[in-house]
Amino acid sequence: MTAHRLTPSRRHILQGFGATALAASLPLRAHAAKPIKIGYVSPETGPLAPFGAADAFVIAALGGKLAAHGITLEVRDSQSDPNRASTVANDLINDGVSLMLVSSTPETTNPVSDQCELAGVPCVSTVSPWQAWFFNRGGKPDEGFTYTYHFFWGLEDVIAVYTGMWGQLQTDRVVGALFPNDGDGNAWGDKAHGFPGPLAAQHFTLIDPGRFQDGSADFSAQINAFKAAKAEIVTGVVIPPDWTTFWSQALQQGFKPRVATVGKALLFPETVNALGAAGNNLSTEVWWTPNHPFTSSLTGQSAKALAAAYTQKTAKQWTQPIGFAHALLEIAVDTLGRASDPTDRESVLAALVKTRLDTIVGPIAWGQGPVKNVAKTPLVGGQWRLTPGGPYQFDLVITENAGAPTIPAGGTMAPIA
Question: Mind listing the domains of the chain with CATH numbers?
Answer without folding.
Answer: 2-153+290-375 (3.40.50.2300), 156-286+379-400 (3.40.50.2300)
